[in-house]
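Example 591, ligand adenosine-5'-diphosphate.
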Amino acid sequence: MPAPDPLSLDTDKPASRKWLREVMKPARSGLREALLVSLFINLLALAVPIFVLQVYTRVVFSHGISTLYALLIGVLAALFFDFIIRQARSRMLQRVALRIDVSLGRSLYNKISALPLRTLEGRPSGFWQTLFRDAEMVRNTFSGSTAVLLTDLPFAVLFVVIIYIIAPPVVWVLLVALPIFVIVSIISGKMMQTATKGEREAGIGRDAFLSEMLQGRATIKALALERTIRPAWEEKHADTIERALVRGGRTDMFSNLGMTLTMLTTVALVTAGALAIIDLKLTIGSLIASTMLGNRVIGPFNQLVGNWRNYANCRQALKRLDAVFALEEDRTERSVQLKRPEGRLTFEAVSFGYEEGRPPVIDNLSMEVKPPGMLGVVGRNGCGKTTLLKMMQGLYAPTSGRVLLDGGDISQFSRQDLAGWVGYVPQECFLFAGTIRENIAITNSEASDEEIVAAATLAGVHEYVIDLPDGYGTEIGEAGSRLSGGQRQRIAIARALLLDPPILLLDEVSGNLDMQAEIALRDTLSELARDHTIVVVTHTPVLLHACNNIMALDKGRIAMGGPAQEILPRLFGGAPRPAEAAPVASGETSS
Ligand code: ADP
């Protein structure tokens, strides 16, 4: 049975936040300082209301000009100091944001790179890209207005107490208004959460569609599919716009509601104050000062309406990141330094399936590939040949059974070690933008020119490269698009040969090669097969005739297997076809 989907990301399991603690470590001291400075900023916020109150009570009615100047000097000094520490806080928060950016970006990149291939394939690439937006959301929340808001809110309580002291008849207005703000914030958070989730999902779908369309641009042009796919694009595009509109509409509604509530509170404060002044229970100075302080109280609560949404989004982002950081990684550490293996590959009753509930792609397969020699693998499309090669590299873990390399379970080796020991040339060779040299030496950037030329010569691409005006420095374009399929294939072969791995796996490599190149490749492989283990998935007689052993796969099982001289006549000489042949009891394919 295949393993359960490792990416059930909407898990309700309590997640470990160890990753977040690690990520926040470099930013923690900066954040602490910024929050401390915020306390001073809040205390300085009292300066202007105190100034107004004092001017009304001690200056206006008693003509105290000298008191006014003294108060003015005091308040100007406070405002200057306020400006300086606000600037300092901005710089501190920028530094915090930078540190979180660096450490979270690095941790997330390392985490995603260390995930097993099966996990990465289980989700569209857009999903993985969006995690970096989640990281940005976390960064913004911890270093932006939401963090500052957290220090402002407790001060609201202090300001309410001061208002109670200077203007008791108006304080009830705030005691009614503040819970209303909190309720609106919570409702806004809840309503925005669904809208933001919808917008995010629609965005991922649209981006995935777009990147697939761009990758397949040659096919789209060749088949003139522009019109055919336009409706699908327009549907996705319209969906994204519609959801963005819903989200935008709700954002506006809540921010307008916040503004209205703020103004209503001011109106209520002034009305209650005016009534109290008429009743001689309050002075004008106290009313003005308490209105100012009231605005300082309401300000953060009004921001809370907008920020509660950020907070809810950040929680969602953290949940997704929790799930990703909890995923099991490929083995990256080696416990001991192992010597180069001989290259014996053993499959012990191995089964593997991509999806639960579907028949296994590799079905209870047992065999041994003994070094040195070349094994040819044949079989119909979809019978599991590529999957088998991926299991030989430890890229997919068996659902049951074991894959052994030189008698040791392949799962114990690190990805780095396996990549060095098992060279792989896939059916669709992916090259990176850059030069030919960079692409051949991508697995070992310190490779000497001689090593690179030797690998290119073995792969039969050296002659072509030295004929180019820029030689090995030729830029090959995005994904190697300036090269032909055959040239890409040969560069991929050179890339695999550069490390001289004891095991070399080639998947339908001759598909893009001309006859001459195929013969040259056969000669290279025959030479290498003297002291390497080579497994080649192929249907061309040229390569098959160079194999020592041949294995025919059918629906993930060995249909035929044995020495090439026995199997080849059965494959090409009118003998039963692989699917009709009786399975061999032992998949022994020793060379
Ligand atoms: P072959 O190389 O023999 O043509 P593969 O090993 O590529 O066959 O595929 C074997 C089967 O596994 C096919 O039925 C294919 O549909 C399925 N398969 C291959 N890759 C995946 C994948 N990433 N996810 C789900 N199914 C897959």
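Summary: The longest strand covers residues 345-352.
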